[in-house]
């Protein structure tokens, strides 16, 4: 079976941290490719504005274009209505029976996963690769959280050993709104796209 990494997210915008996580997962776990999968309508982000899907899709395509083992997947963005991870993973397994999927998440997702739509199905349908660190607001260490979820859900969860990445899409949007350069945080083609399409000019 081909081992495929799935890195989903709003990608508003995609940034160098996302790409480093994808690269780290590819090499550490011997994956065949990494599918970057922009979400359609993120159910957890209905309380604030999200850039239209076509533009987020364009930025992801630009960001992954020069890396042969990166692929931009429209599996979620072409679906109508809210897109839940549990549904996406079940549909992926059905559509690509020849693949084994590795779902790549950050530490925040690992701590919040029990609040997701059917978290037991998320952990049933995929191997989870988690990048990140312990969050101070949580009483469990990163390693303890992995053990807790593994025991409770019989999940397969492995840590990604990559340097800590201190970049967020929210901070990038704020920098653009304030007129600061973002070229150290996103690929050049993505920075140019944001400028050309006048994205994120209004502060949130």
UniProtKB/TrEMBL annotation:
Catalytic activity, EC: 2.7.7.18
Catalytic activity: nicotinate beta-D-ribonucleotide + ATP + H(+) = deamido-NAD(+) + diphosphate
This protein's record includes keyword Nucleotidyltransferase: yes
GO BP term (any one): NAD+ biosynthetic process
GO molecular function: ATP binding; nicotinate-nucleotide adenylyltransferase activity
Keywords on record: ATP-binding, NAD, Nucleotide-binding, Nucleotidyltransferase, Pyridine nucleotide biosynthesis, Transferase
Residues of the Cytidyltransferase-like domain: 6-174
Domain of life: Bacteria
Enzyme class: transferase
UniProt pathway: Cofactor biosynthesis; NAD(+) biosynthesis; deamido-NAD(+) from nicotinate D-ribonucleotide: step 1/1
InterPro entries documented for this protein: Cyt_trans-like, NadD/NMNAT, Rossmann-like_a/b/a_fold
Similarity comment: family membership: Belongs to the NadD family.
Biological function: Catalyzes the reversible adenylation of nicotinate mononucleotide (NaMN) to nicotinic acid adenine dinucleotide (NaAD).
NCBIfam families for this protein: cyt_tran_rel, nicotinate (nicotinamide) nucleotide adenylyltransferase, PRK00071.1-3
Protein's UniProt name: Probable nicotinate-nucleotide adenylyltransferase
Taxonomic source organism: Clostridium porci
Upper lineage: Bacteria, Bacillati, Bacillota, Clostridia, Eubacteriales
């Amino acid at each position: 079976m081909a081992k495929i990494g799935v890195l989903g997210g709003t990608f508003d915008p995609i940034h160098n941290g996302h790409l480093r996580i994808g690269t780290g997962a590819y090499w550490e776990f011997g994956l065949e490719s990494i599918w970057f999968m922009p979400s359609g309508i993120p159910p957890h982000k209905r309380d604030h504005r999200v850039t239209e899907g076509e533009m987020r899709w364009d930025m992801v395509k630009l960001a992954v274009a020069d890396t042969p083992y990166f692929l931009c997947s429209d599996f979620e963005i072409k679906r109508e209505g809210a897109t839940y991870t549990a549904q996406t993973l079940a549909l992926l397994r059905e559509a690509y029976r020849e693949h084994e999927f590795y779902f790549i998440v950050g530490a925040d997702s690992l701590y919040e996963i029990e609040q997701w739509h059917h978290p037991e199905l998320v952990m049933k349908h995929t191997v989870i690769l988690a990048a990140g660190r312990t969050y101070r607001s949580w009483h469990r260490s990163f390693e303890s959280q992995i053990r807790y979820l593994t025991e409770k859900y019989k999940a397969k969860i492995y840590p990604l050993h990559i340097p800590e990445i201190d970049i967020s899409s929210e901070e990038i949007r704020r920098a653009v709104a304030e007129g600061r350069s973002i070229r150290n945080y996103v690929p050049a083609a993505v920075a140019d796209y944001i400028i050309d399409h006048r994205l994120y000019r209004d502060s949130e």
